[in-house]
Design goal:
Order of helices and strands: HHHEEHHHHEEEEEHEHEEHEH
Helix content: 40-55%
Largest sheet: 5 strands, antiparallel
Strand order of the largest sheet: 6-5-4-3-7
Strand content: 15-25%
Distance between the termini: 78 Å
């Protein structure tokens, strides 16, 4: 590639990194004089790359929004980072309904990778192992996702059509606070304006989202991720479980994370180490109880079951089975 053409492409790569670049900065990076930089800029403009001039003390050049996406320049490390991100996103389920988009994007980048980088990438993917199996997730519509994101940023109300887990359909007015990715799914937290209560909605269950006139203020409170975890821990299920467990917060959270259970911490008495073991009240809700006795056993901490009685019976049955197995010759 002739050197001037290479410098023009390098100039485009510098502008694509964002912000306004001064002529002096660009000249230094390209190893040319300022008037040569201006000539290179004119060549980009002739190629319909939307470069605009910024006047003033801190002026220079920057890419302007155009009707056509300019050629994308990625370094080897940037291309590798994008491809690994696409692999991780597909595996985690954090894609949209157009699942082929990440695959075609990966294929396009791989086709233009230098051979030595492609070989190293293949070596990495062959050597890479995951501790979990890839899941099959219901993914949201891309347009719905972007519409909700815009409403979050500008605090605009939304009209959404939602289908709950029981298949019931409804139309709601949502004041969306934030979008949260958790365990391979997309969620939106916000206020259901009709009942004036905070709710969490799965994005893949939203069939349509339309912005409405007006605006709202996001209330002060827990961050979006904490709102989501609290919503999971207090969701309405068949059983309401109350326990008292003797241990530290860290010991309990290792088996009962915030997305599963809420933890009530009593203020430590004067002189008591806050990190010390003590009795803590744990509450959770569940549709089934059979998974909970093994979790309590794995805690290896003293505990008291306050409710329900069915859980006490299941724990006793598990203890009897373990005792029987331990006594076998």
């Amino acid at each position: 590639m002739p050197r001037p053409t290479g410098r023009v492409l390098t100039l485009l790569e510098l502008l694509q990194s964002g912000g306004t670049r001064t002529v002096a900065e660009l000249a230094d990076r390209l190893g040319v004089e300022g008037r040569t930089v201006r000539r290179y800029v004119n060549q980009l403009i002739d190629l319909d790359v939307p470069v605009e001039s910024v006047r003033g003390r801190y002026g220079g050049y920057r890419l302007a929004p155009g009707y056509r996406l300019p050629p994308l320049m990625l370094s080897d490390d940037e291309a590798l980072a994008v491809l690994l991100g696409l692999v991780a996103g597909r595996r985690a389920g954090l894609t949209t309904t157009d699942r082929t988009a990440s695959e075609t994007a990966s294929a396009k980048i791989r086709r233009v990778l230098p051979k030595h980088v492609a070989r190293r990438l293949d070596t990495l993917l062959e050597a890479l192992a995951f501790t979990d199996q890839p899941g099959e997730f219901d993914t949201p519509d891309g347009e719905v996702l972007l519409t909700i994101a815009d409403a979050v940023r500008h605090r605009r109300p939304l009209s959404i059509r939602y289908t709950d887990r029981d298949g019931r359909r409804s139309e709601r007015t949502l004041h969306a606070y934030a979008i949260v990715a958790h365990a391979g799914r997309w969620y939106v937290t916000g206020e259901d304006a009709r009942i004036s209560e905070d709710r969490t909605f799965r994005l893949d269950r939203i069939a349509d989202a339309r912005p409405l006139p007006g605006s709202f203020e996001t209330p002060v409170g827990p961050d979006p991720a904490q709102r989501l975890l609290s919503a999971f821990a207090t969701a309405g299920y068949r059983y309401e479980v109350t326990l008292r467990i003797h241990g530290t917060v860290e010991q309990i959270r290792a088996r009962l994370p915030a997305s599963v259970a809420s933890l009530e911490e009593d203020a430590p008495v004067a002189g008591e180490d806050r990190a010390a073991e003590r009795w803590l009240r744990v509450e959770l809700r569940a549709e089934r109880l059979d998974w909970l006795p093994p979790v309590l056993a794995s805690l290896d901490r003293p505990f008291v079951i306050e409710r329900p009685d069915e859980l006490r019976d299941l724990v006793t049955a598990l203890a009897d089975r373990l005792t029987t197995c331990a006594r076998r010759a």
